[in-house]
Design goal:
There is one protein chain. This protein has 95 residues and is mainly alpha-helical. It has two domains: 1-61; 65-95, no CATH class. The protein is built from two helices and no strands. The chain is elongated.
């Protein structure tokens, strides 16, 4: 190999090494940013879970009771009409 070829390869090697360090620096910045976001996200999820557990599970919150009117189907009678309920059930069993 001639002296010119060796100097070309040395220059090419230095150029590629420089480009690699630049790209590696960009990826390091991206990885640092992703690590920060994932850390903040995990802290937020943990805090939200603890608050939700305290609010929904530890306290005795009951669902609002609206009665049976929104659950009625097939012409079912109202809950406060026991005679009609019994007749309705008997008719349903016969049919």
């Amino acid at each position: 190999m001639s002296e010119v070829d060796i100097s070309k390869y040395a220059a090419l090697y230095e150029y590629q090494k420089n480009q690699f360090s630049i790209v590696k620096g960009h990826y390091e910045k991206l990885e640092d940013k992703a690590t920060k976001y994932l850390t903040y996200l995990s802290i937020f999820i943990t805090a939200f879970s603890l608050l939700a557990k305290y609010y929904f599970i530890d306290t005795n919150i009951k669902a609002p009771f609206f009665g049976y009117t929104d659950l009625m189907v097939d012409g079912a009678p109202l809950p406060h009409q026991p005679d009609t309920i019994i007749r309705w059930l008997i008719d349903r069993l016969r049919s």
